[in-house]
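Q: Structure for this?
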Amino acid sequence: MTPQHDVTPVPAAAIGAWDQEADVVIAGYGVAGAAAAVEAARAGADVLVLERTGAWGGAAAMAGGFIYLGGGTALQKACGFDDSVDNMAAFLNAAMGPGADENRIADYCAGSVEHFEWLSGCDVPFKAEFFGEPGWEPMGDQGLMYSGGENSYPFNTIATPAPRGHVPQMSNKKQGEASAGYMLMKPLVETATAAGARALYDVRVQRLIVESDGRVAGIQARRYGTDINIRARRGVVLATGSFAYNDAMVAQYAPRIAGRPAASIEQHDGQAIRMAQALGADLAHMDATEVAIFVDPQQLVRGILVNGLGQRFVAEDTYPGRIGQLTLYHQDNTAYLIIDGDSQEEAMAAPSPQLMMRPPTWVCDSVADLEQEMGLAPGCLQATVAAYNEAAGRGEDPLLHKKRQWLKPVGSPVGAIDLRESTGGFTLGGLQTTLDGEVLHVSGQPIPGLYAAGRSTAGLAAWGYASGVSLGDGSFYGRRAGGRAAKG
Amino acid sequence: MTPQHDVTPVPAAAIGAWDQEADVVIAGYGVAGAAAAVEAARAGADVLVLERTGAWGGAAAMAGGFIYLGGGTALQKACGFDDSVDNMAAFLNAAMGPGADENRIADYCAGSVEHFEWLSGCDVPFKAEFFGEPGWEPMGDQGLMYSGGENSYPFNTIATPAPRGHVPQMSNKKQGEASAGYMLMKPLVETATAAGARALYDVRVQRLIVESDGRVAGIQARRYGTDINIRARRGVVLATGSFAYNDAMVAQYAPRIAGRPAASIEQHDGQAIRMAQALGADLAHMDATEVAIFVDPQQLVRGILVNGLGQRFVAEDTYPGRIGQLTLYHQDNTAYLIIDGDSQEEAMAAPSPQLMMRPPTWVCDSVADLEQEMGLAPGCLQATVAAYNEAAGRGEDPLLHKKRQWLKPVGSPVGAIDLRESTGGFTLGGLQTTLDGEVLHVSGQPIPGLYAAGRSTAGLAAWGYASGVSLGDGSFYGRRAGGRAAKG
């Protein structure tokens, strides 16, 4: 268990002298903190960003860079895709639940086109090119991709498919090199700096400083072994990320993801959540997680995925993060990808970064032998493959509606990729906030002077996920929080 | 959404005069409150119990009355069953997870035999007779029953099966009449009263009263339209139950159970949780829920249960609450019970309260027709029934290991009972406490003067469940909280 540090609020009356002050003090210089800094500074506030590490970036700078946007952005249009606010909301309401907040989704969708313009206005570059292959990320510097299963069953029956994964353009993307998330963060931080936002690095926020009437007045932090007190004249914005790396919190709130944090950074220790909880802040959707499954989507679409009972359970051509969630939560983290020799070869030759390409764990001449070698119940996999093959031969998948282009009867030799315990991810739950980024007390009222955004808050996703939702709601509500805090 | 009342703590300095005082003040007179009252009073404390309704009882008095106990209780022995502390812990660690707290389970199991003696010493009556039929509760006044799938797959491969559902004896049980839970509560309250505990009814607790150093000093409550202040000289014990009836909290923390509270009472509005959260109390397992599926287990064991893809997913003869959880969470709340005419007749004639006996929604001559009528994907149910029948004919169930006694090929006519949206339940998450019932602050330290037990706390169950776990950990840790609070 992670030791919990003392997050008990400090009375403002106990502060002798302030070491730093600003109108708006932001904890964390990831995407939410940067967006908050831009908006607060542009609104005329004196802004100070406190960052725990030696540099800006946060998890965002390490991320694939997807920003989930739609409703008819300039990039969607330039790539030839139609979308509408209602259509985007219909998808998100279905894909981010159960438990997704319809009001927040409506708000986010309504502002999505403007938010794309705002990012472009901050010089975040996007190349008007669509990447249509199955994959976790574009292979090159393409700017748009399906990133949530919008064009797959069941979502393609709920809303008109439109790709909404907007990816900043790498000027010189090479495999394994810096990520597109860097190309989001660099211009945002430059914009914030140009607008006058200051930053202090190597500062670890510890406790909130509170007036006797409950108003948040600043932050106590640790820097080079010394406690420092930073006064926030108008407001504090918490943006220190998720709790994926706080073992105790994960055990309490999201035990399924315990021991398998991924696509996150060690600084995501839930500190902002705990600091606000100590003031009576409310939480939401703390069990929600993003889940990746460690296999290449080029393989997934060409195989059939079965659980420990040899049964299919999801269309293999949907968003791989959805496959990860269903595997971890609904299938006891047990899945096997059945793929024949030809399909495996085809996958290996397909456009893909190859990093997650997996060799088969078992290969046999027949499904009967494979089933036995895998230790599955006799007959279960044979029945599944027989039913799949019979329908695939007709170009149909009546059970799960995988798209016709990926339907082909499973032949021989046939392999199985062992995907047990092959998932990882990060937490999505956090502080309950208003659409203006005000942190809500359990009594239902905003805590005066306290704002939050990013993955320390409960955002768009309550249970499902789409790549780009975290950078999306982090930047979108980071702006809101910064703008609101600047008003004091 | 439920409007959230103001739960902001009241400074003790602001209290002019106390309307009531006691050494130990307990909020809620259900099972946890009653057990706390007994132990605090026996420890010499002056005890005052505040109850929102006009009478003691809480959800416990309405419940089936199961108390989950084992490790070799006198009742288990009298009924001829062997059990051990380790065996009980092995079962609970498997069945209450993922995320179950091994330390708490070890503690509970180690104290289980003594806790049975304590309940008996409070004159809670148990009849030394085992009820062995499938069912939610015993048909008569039998005192012991399997209540968590201990004798079913997979738990029967993890720990030696032993029944642990201990049921207080109704003196004159008739179908539909008062529940066994009443026979638990009546003697506990009488014992508390005899030990000197006082009670005040029609008191709705509102806010905690707190000293400037953070120590809880009392409770502010509402009685007949007036605020009253109750001083707790040694400690406050929160025992007001779950948040199953707080729509806003359910949406934030356990959205899957939204709109379907069951086996709970309207007073379970999460008030204790919110009052403690306002002081910075930590939470755990807020998404965990007990889930009932509304069908008679005598039908379940005789049929085969399939999901929306026509696939089996759980041994039909396990704990029906487990079937409910898997249906709601893993199968999108979609299940159908396939049962032939003979089996349905047999179920109807079996010992059962019949309350949850369901007629088939569809009946056909063949599985092919049934599948079509149900609107399932062509062939999926036929394949499932064919595989089941083939193995059942040999007395085997290689896929899910239903016990041999219930295996019989599905014949004609064949029906299906529509079990979509046929679940309901209550929430299991709540305040994070020590094994002594101290409420933990998010900093990891106990909040001075504040204790809690029962379903306002995170107890034994993190995700799974067994009937009797709530009355079990509520009474067990209610005692701890009361005893600890009495020490001040």
